Amino acid sequence: MGVRLDAFYRSLAHLEAAGIPWPRAVEMASGGDPAWAPAVADLRAGRPLSEAFDGRVPALDLAGVRAAEVAGRLEATFLDLARRAEETMARERARRAAVAYPFAIAHFAAVLMPVPDLVAGNLGAALGWTALILGPLYAWLAYRRAATRALDAVPRGGRAPAWTAPLRTRAWVEEADARALRALGWLHDAGVPLLDAVPLAAHAGAGGRMADDLVDAWAAVRAGQPLATAWRRVPHELAATLATGEQTGHLAEACAHEAASLEGIAALRREKRTALLKPLMIVLVGLVIGARVISFYAGMLSKAGIRR
């Protein structure tokens, strides 16, 4: 079991306040976890905290750490990251609880559906019905896990693999856009140069529209153009707000405002979808079981009629 990020960040904040050197602080906060040994070694070699954490914390958190290094507010940032990690875990628990009942219903159906064939002594058909119900369910879970890992592994300046598209629902994309905006706002507010901030922000929102635009924006910034020239995939209203913020020197505030708005919209979409999932699953399973029972007994009656 790995280190819990909320506890890890909170410990780092307290150790930073106590003036403990970073190599020792990370070692203490991680509880000596071997997975963090390379980060400790990087810090002892004099590398920045953001470089030592690269690939070991979520991309959004990495952007926050980089911004905090530049702004000199690591303690406050780690406390904020601890709170965000707690909120993320709470949302994940709520999502799992929401799908637990439909998940149980599917397994109940997988047990019930083969019963007629088992009674008739047809083991192959019984296993086939179980696979028909549970196969797609576990295939989706395996795909979701693989797609999530692929999105987490998207390099800076890269784009999400096309095969991850089914995972990137509207709510998922809005959440990814919000992460990219959060990261860009933090980094810009801290004074991180855009050439460094843009790829970090794109990495934080990998798979979203904002991330793809930021990949283009990096090239635009290198060519001496404003960020606004790269906003092509994000909604027009969002692009206009960001362009205004950039022109007036309030880009960080614009990013924070739009990120909060997208997070709220995505949360509402997920709540609506979750509310529909339970009754929809019950109806679907009920229809399948009903059709299965009717077809089984219709077959028995048909055989009985033939024998007569």
Features:
0% strand; 2 domains; 77% helix; mainly alpha; 308 residues; single chain
Structure description:
With 308 residues, this protein is mainly alpha-helical. It has two domains: 5-83, no CATH class; 98-259, no CATH class. Helices cover 77% and strands 0% of the residues. It has helices at residues 5-17, 22-29, 37-44, 49-53, 59-71, 74-112, 115-119, 123-152, 170-190, 194-204, 209-222, 236-248, 251-307. The radius of gyration is 25 Å and the shape is elongated. The protein starts with a helix and ends with a helix. 31% of the residues are buried. The mean pLDDT is 88.
As a percent range, the share of helical residues equals over 70%
Radius of gyration: 25 Å
Count of individual domains:
2
**Which percent band covers the strand fraction?**
under 5%
Distance between the termini: 65 Å
Class by SSE composition: mainly alpha
Shape descriptor reads: elongated
Uncertain spans, ≥5 residues at pLDDT below 50? Answer: none
Quaternary: single chain
Question: Sheet with the most strands?
Answer: none
Number of DSSP E strands: 0
Roughly what is the average pLDDT, rounded to an integer?
88
Individual helix count: 13
> Helix and strand string, N-terminal first?
HHHHHHHHHHHHH
